[in-house]
Amino acid sequence: MIEFNIYSLNSSNTSSKVPCSSALCEQQKQCSSPQSNCPYEVLYLSNGTSSTGVLVEDVLHLTTDEDKTKAVEAKITFGCGQTQTGSFLNGAAPNGLFGLGMDNVSVPSILANENLASNSFSMCFGLDGVGRITFGDRGSSGQGETPFNLRQSHPTYNVSITQVNVGGNTADLDFNAIFDSGTSFTYLNDPAYTLISENFNNFAVEKRHTSNSSGLPFEYCYDLSANQTSFKYPIVNLTMKGGDYFFVNDPIIVISLQGGDVYCLGIVKSDNVNIIGQNFMTGYRIVFDRERMVLGWKASDCYDIEASNTLPVNPTTAVPPAIAVNPEATSGNANNTNISGASPSITSPSRHLKTLFYALTFALIPFFALI
After folding, report:
1. Where is coiled-coil annotated (predicted)?
2. Alpha-carbon separation of residue 71 from 65, 117, 184, 212 (angstroms)
């Protein structure tokens, strides 16, 4: 267990409350005067989940690639939560949310507006749970890319997927999905959910887990025997708009139950939105290039960028989507194909998906929502 220090506005000698007169205050209609503290309210995709409080300005301490011994102090604005509801009361993001979206109040936007970093950042999701976040990272040569689908009312990191490959065979399927590092697992609605899940199930070797008492959020889980040290599962890969391939390195999660271990396809059925979560980003450095408006990705073990204060954490349950919008998701028709083939075997049934701490000496909120 890791003890988190609760941020205290009064204990920080660099903090200040944001007044209603600030250009970053979006709730000015709720202010009694321009000098009042600026309130905020965020409603999340999970039913009944919200956060309210006041906006605060404080210092984020970063290091640069040029001189890792010298800290860069950047003033950022964030919400100091006073009332939390829904999933926040059940363990979701116990140490807060770190805004990485396109709105002006997000950390990447503030850093870019202050000319402290390019208007782009990357997040690396290591296979062993190590993570990196690098502000100003615009990617590298040879990375895969696809354009963002922007909605002016509430822009998100939404991309188009044109094909799905399960087990080595490809099916044409056009749908949009949001790349959201604030969601542990991937959420898909139909037809994408059914196409991937049923084809995955057709070629899973182990017996499907049927217990209804385990409380798992995943529909497609498979029992592992007590002495089993390896297993195989069908590959899951995506083709993005523009033709670049996104190979899913880690679509499954191994979970220890009272009756033994199971492995599950880490996809949850969604009613209204498609979300590519952390598990599908594993093994990649994901670049959110807001200057060129493209998503980039390149295979990485996340050790090629030196960083400090990294620490893997093992969550015990799946965290619901943390996106603070209700985006419209579009889907196309699927051309179902027979699926065959499998990935190399997994040799560690006890391996669990890990959320990530990042190389920030400012330890307020290492769990992310793209808002």
Report:
1. none
2. 11, 14, 30, 51
What's the topology of domain 9-369? Cathepsin D, subunit A; domain 1 (2.40.70)
Residue 323 has pLDDT above 60, yes or no: no
Report the C-alpha gap between 55 and 62 in whole angstroms. 21
| Residue 330 binned pLDDT confidence (cut-offs 50, 70, 90) | very low
In the predicted model, what is the mean pLDDT of residues 38-47?
A: 82
Structure tokens at 131: 């993570």
Bridge partners for 32 per DSSP? none
- Other C-beta atoms lying within 10 Å of the C-beta of residue 21: 13
| Residue whose C-alpha is closest to residue 365's, from 336, 333, 327, 322 | 322
Is the pTM higher than 0.90? The answer reads no
pLDDT over 70, % of the chain:
77
Residue 187, Cβ density class (10 Å: 0-12 exposed, 13-18 middle, ≥19 buried): buried
Q: How far, CA to CA in Å, does 162 sit from each of 241, 302, 332, 337, 343?
A: 6, 28, 9, 15, 22
**pLDDT above 60 for 245:** yes
For residue 297, what pLDDT is reported?
Answer: 97
Domain locations in the chain as residue ranges:
9-369
Angle 168-236-289 from CA coordinates, rounded to 5°: 120
Bridge partners (DSSP) of residue 246 are 238
Q: Are 93 and 322 in contact (CB under 8 A)?
A: yes
Percent composition of the chain: helix, strand, coil (DSSP 3-state, to 5): 10, 35, 55
pLDDT band at 69 (very low <50, low <70, confident <90, very high): low
3-class DSSP state for residue 10?
A: helix
Closest CA to 285 of 295, 299, 306: 299
